[in-house]
Design a protein that fits this description.
The complex is a heterodimer of chains A (157) and B (598). Chain A is α+β, with helices and mostly antiparallel strands and 157 residues long. Chain A has two domains: 3-65, no CATH class; 77-156, Glutaredoxin (3-Layer(aba) Sandwich). In chain A, 49% of the residues lie in helices and 11% in strands. In chain A, strands 2-1-3-4 form a four-stranded mixed beta sheet, with helices on one face. The two termini of chain A are 28 Å apart. Chain B has 598 residues and is an alpha/beta fold. Chain B is 38% helix and 15% strand. In chain B, the strands form five sheets. Chain B has a five-stranded mixed beta sheet with strand order 2-1-3-4-5, with helices on one face. Chain B has a five-stranded mixed beta sheet with strand order 11-10-14-12-13. In chain B, strand 10 and strand 11 form a beta hairpin. Classes of the chains: A alpha+beta (157), B alpha/beta (598).
Amino acid sequence: MGASTAQLMPEFLAAIASRPADREQLIPLLQRAQATFGYLPREAMEGIARNVRLPLSRIQGVATFYNQFRFTPPAEKPVHVCLGTACHVRGADRVLTAMEDTLKIQEGQTTPDGRFSLERVACVGACGLAPVVVVGGRTYGRLTPDRARRLLRRARA
Amino acid sequence: MALPETQTAPVRVMVGMGTCGLAAGAREVWAALEEELSGACVQLSQTGCIGMCEQEPLVDVVVPGEPRVTYGGMTPERVRRVVEEHVHGGRPVEEWVVGRIADAVAPYRELEFYRSQHRIVLRNCGFIDPDSLEEYENRDGYQGLRSALATDPTAVIETVKQSGLRGRGGAGFPTGLKWQFARQAPGEPKYLICNADEGDPGAFMDRSVLEGDPHAVLEGMVIAAHAVGASHGYIYVRAEYPLAVERIRRAIAQAREAGYLGRGILGSGLSFDLTVKEGAGAFVCGEETALISSIEGRRGMPRVRPPFPAQQGLWGKPTIINNVESYANIPHILREGAESIARLGTEKSKGTKVFALAGKVRHTGLVEVPMGVTIREIVEEMGGGSAEERHRLKAVQIGGPSGGCIPTALWDTPVDYESLIGAGAVMGSGGLIVLDDTTCMVEMARFFMSFVQKESCGKCVPCREGTRRLLEILERIVVGEAEPEDLERLRGLSETVRGASLCALGQTAPNPLLSTLRYFPEEYLEHVHDKRCRAGTCLALGHFRVIAEKCPGCNKCVKVCPVEAINGKVKHPFVIDPDKCTKCGACEDVCSFDAIVH
């Protein structure tokens, strides 16, 4: 557990324990945990399991089903490369390759300094501006491999 | 805001702040406008997506008494001149104008992109500030609800039935009939769900409606609640659409405040409230029974139907699930009458449909057209044809992973539910991706198969195992390792997956594959027999080479090649060693002279 996770944990556990919830609240609680910590630490899932009165295995079963949830801490600036249909036909895989080369990591990995992670996503719904990437929560459109490289260099500086 | 008549209305400047606008730089344009306009008596506001995605960021200047002027491709640098010459000087900067709207009902008459459009669902998108309930009300907002509340619920259902509206999420089930089933089904309470889990890659109309006109969806839902007797509703939105989530939440709070939601709505006996549920990223949750499982806090897996949700849905109670676009049609039907929808479209498909036009087409964006217009009209007239002169259009992909590719020869097919199925595609949610001769149809089939294989929930064997085997065969074909028998295997296995899967995800998964196999068999045969890809995108087939006449010998490619496969002298044409080349394509990307081809 990282320093900030350890710091935030007691408050999170106390906040959810104060309001017992039913199963309908399970996914919203997981989303709240992820918004707090950036991922789902085991302790948070255990707290949620107590809160909704279900075994931890069930909680994990639900959490692992959905693409949104992650189980390791995120990078400072996550990079999501859209590989939806419109982006695909407009050369998104070349954009992804350029980003892999620039960050020197493969899709699904995080840079050793923890600053960038690289993930593919199915569609961010900005198809009119394909190809599209999302860096640190901001969406950038009309990318080329070259523009992608420059975007990352600027984000790194 | 209604101003006293003695006071002159201020000049209004609007910035398109949907996801597309923001991605193109609307935030920077907004900041520049704030700075330039500070102190001036000008009303600066945001608006949703008007559908002209490729021209974003868009800025509109409205001088009272004059047509609204739309500027495209705005940058902070352009802002200064527009403010100086147009806002203050009254002279539009003609070179950046993309259109003028004199008439909000039929905007931009002179533009091909808008001429054939008929905007019902998108009527307010790009015209109002989505965060302002007042602006929605000023354009007849919640009038449909008022007339519904003055009418008996069964009469409301009758009106929706007469309009001929069918589900816009893709399957096309008659909306009024679905409502009638839920009304008649025993069990209390009844629930209402809005399916805004727009997971189909290539579709973004639901996002645009939620971002640009959230109250229209709410109004449609409250009318539905009155009609079927529901007391609570859910809006299930993709978490990937944070702006849509934010705007719909704000709209719900405003609607509660104004008495459009809550107890005794507008003084009637109707009590109805809404909860927003953020989806957690699973394509299969677009399937209604999977979506219900997800709201209940479970893994989003579908179950066998019947019973249909209208009989037994959320928590086992009668539940209506409609798509965003379906709900957005409802206020219009109640306000303008069933005939306003029924007179548009074809015999079996009434009203309009919003299509998300993207891919290799000149004008990308959202178009809302009466059902029954042809694919050719949408792509060639409204979309302006090929994005690049030198490339020839080949097909459109309609309906996403459940849909198919329709070749140019069949572009006179009208867009309605039945005709599209006949052509091997589906209406789906309305994603329309244009493909040209640089798109390999086999690769396209592999792309969609890989998507559904990843998103298959794993509950039923035909889908879980079948899509994986189909993907493996397609992967063999695109790298040139397939055997001739593989094509028959694809056909046979597709039939099994189609016929035996539990839900629509598996039942329609083979569609992109079967439609490309049906219309582009030669591309499959070339990959299998000649190890050739005519589009040049299957990198494993063929090799990279330098066109000597085009290569000035700049050596940029030499620097990016990770395996030192490019040899030669600076200022002389370089040569690629096919034995060393790993076909990564880095040299092709970096070449400024188009001298490297595959």
